[in-house]
Amino acid sequence: MEIGESSESPEGKKKSKSKTPRKPKDSVLKQKSPAEFFADNKNIAGFDNPGKCLYTTVRELVENALDSAESISKLPIVEITIEEIVRSKFNSMIGLAEHERVDEELYDDFESAKAREKRLAKEARIQEIQAKNANLGKKVKEPVASKAMRGRGETSYYRVTCKDNGKGMPHDDIPNMFGRVLSGTKYGLKQTRGKFGLGAKMALIWSKMSTGLPIEITSSMKGQNYTSFCRLDIDIHRNIPHIHVHEKQDKKERWHGAEIQIVIEGNWTTYRSKILHYMRQMAVITPYAEFLFRFLSDAPDKNVTVKFARRTDIMPPVPLETKYHPSAVDLLLIKRLIAETSKQNLLQFLQHEFVNISKSHAERLIGEMGPDFSHKMLVKSLTSQQIVRIHQLFRQAKFDDPSGDCLSPAGEYNLRLGIIKELHPDMVATYSGSAQVFEGHPFLVEAGVSVGGKDVKQGVNIFRFANRIPLLFEQGADVVTRTALKRINWNSYKINQVQDKIGVFVSIVSTKIPFKGTGKEYIGDDISEIAAAVKTSIQQCCTQLKSKILKRIQAREQQERKRNLSKYIPNVTGAIYDVLKEMSHLHASKRKRYANEDAEVLNKVSNHIITRETLGEKLAQHVEQVDYEMALEYATQSGVNEEPRENIYIQTLEGESKFVDFQSPVFVFRLFQ
Ligand SMILES: Nc1ncnc2c1ncn2[C@@H]1O[C@H](COP(=O)(O)OP(=O)(O)OP(=O)(O)O)[C@@H](O)[C@H]1O
């Protein structure tokens, strides 16, 4: 009997008393490999359910492809294909004979005849209500799929292929890159999309969990006269690659890059829009890349082909590898840097392994460390206590902030291009902040805010990017969402947070993006430096927008005034003319005499020189003139003239005239010889 079980029963209790107590099964010490850990907790890496797994797999492969092409300054071309494999096709692919269902009631999607009848009646009722609502112009809700509709065949199998024109991979490194969790080439201090050395392996773990099929990698590097091919899966317990094939093949085309292929379970129906949304936003923030996205299935009407063409040839500068900032290191890291350094003495070590420590600064720091330290002492001979002293000094001393030179922001131009493409707004403003620092890591925030546009929902629509990755999940907890919704006083910028269609785009780049979790879904709101920079960037955009909005409001008010005045012209003309006509009769019949100018006007009325029409025209002219003068006054006050500009050509100063005049509605500028 199991000890764990025995303790449940009184009998067991008795027995356990008479024997040496054994540990309950739960507390037996075990170890887990990183691969096992992530297989057990795949949700923390963004692999929550089959649909999300499909989304995250696409994402991981696309981001690796972009990192790879950009690392060699190549304009990226990325082809992603998702091929649906229905269950029967999948079974024949793996050599599993098709089984007809024998006992229907065993299945989750089983529906008795009675239940079916009830469901159909309910669906018919819903359809009827919806048709009525549609006729009344009311909003029609999407029907919720019933269990029977959802059931069979919803999750399916997908072959995901991603091909790029990047750097490719060294032949011998491929197995570890794809078959050993927590191995990668992006751990250094550099702005990259990838960071954890996990994404591709998670896709493989999911494929192992859901289809049992290996991953296939084809790669070729520049200058290699062969193509590497590797088919492998992962030994989860030992966290090592399990290689099926690893060979060099003849190179058939002049291509460098990688092509990754994996077969996983997924759910296209529920994640279709997320995947397409992701691709679209990736195209927005990466306008210098070309993406070809295809979804292929046996049902041609489900197929999708979208090409996101390259819109600019200018790539942001390649991010540079940088060194640690002294304020960003901990004891462990200092020890690692000491173990890895090629520098001999402490002075060289401080000067060369960190940013913002010059030689003279290093000398002063060593002086401050105490009598046990000297410039020439061997860095590898430092004791643990001495390392603690260095660490303490790094914590207390003042260092210049790291510069943002190693970062590669998307750029205001790209952001603006993206916003215009995505939202077609009425107005847009962008802002790019200067580099700032958190925990010794430089970061930079760029923002764009737009108002209006087609197909934009009312309220605040948020678009988030981190190291040029679009973030689509966990929006509520993100620093950008919280800042935009809670810390911006939209009213003070003449923007209505509820009724206006507002677009907020924020892109953050850093050598370390403080994602919450390895799924890279959101940046928390707890880093005050980042939160403050996000707020400032959005506010800067809003300030730009405010002046545009005010101008529009004034222009609209002016037009309104003009329209109001013009509206009354016929009535006013009629009334004045009737009075004048009455007066002219009195004047003509000499019942009442008018003199001078009055008599002149009344004579003109009698002689039809002043008529209802001429009066109307004069009034209209006057309104026009007042409007023009007010516009001029406004333009002079605001100092901005948005009238279409005209080219002015300067005449040669020959002959009689010794000057030339530039005429404008508000000034004349005379240029003398
Ligand atoms: N398409 C590719 N081209 C070149 N190298 C690649 C490609 N895909 C993956 N790699 C290499 O494999 C390594 C592991 O990739 P993986 O997706 O597991 O992690 P990562 O990209 O480093 O980090 P993250 O888990 O944050 O995405 C990468 O660091 C990279 O060196």
Automatic annotation (TrEMBL):
Gene Ontology biological-process annotations: DNA topological change
Coiled-coil blocks: none
Region (Disordered): 1-33
Compartments reported by the entry: Nucleus
A GO molecular function held by the record: ATP binding
DNA topoisomerase VI subunit B transducer domain location: 402-561
Top-rank EC class of the record's enzyme: isomerase
Organism domain of life: Eukaryota
Binding site residues for ATP: N64, D164, T185, K186, G194, K195, F196, G197, L198, G199, A200, K201, K520
InterPro entries to which the protein is assigned, alphabetical: HATPase_C_sf, Ribosomal_Su5_D2-typ_SF, Ribosomal_uS13-like_H2TH, Ribsml_uS5_D2-typ_fold_subgr, TopoVI_B, TopoVI_B_transducer
Cross-referenced Pfam families: HATPase_c_3, Topo-VIb_trans
Keywords on record: ATP-binding, DNA-binding, Isomerase, Nucleotide-binding, Nucleus, Topoisomerase
A GO CC term attached to the entry: DNA topoisomerase type II (double strand cut, ATP-hydrolyzing) complex
SUPFAM superfamilies hit by this protein: ATPase domain of HSP90 chaperone/DNA topoisomerase II/histidine kinase (SSF55874), Ribosomal protein S5 domain 2-like (SSF54211), S13-like H2TH domain (SSF46946)
Function of the protein: Component of the DNA topoisomerase VI involved in chromatin organization and progression of endoreduplication cycles. Relaxes both positive and negative superturns and exhibits a strong decatenase activity. The B subunit binds ATP.
HAMAP family: Top6B (MF_00322)
Family: Belongs to the TOP6B family.
Protein name listed in UniProt: DNA topoisomerase 6 subunit B
Organism placement in taxonomy: Eukaryota, Viridiplantae, Streptophyta, Embryophyta, Tracheophyta
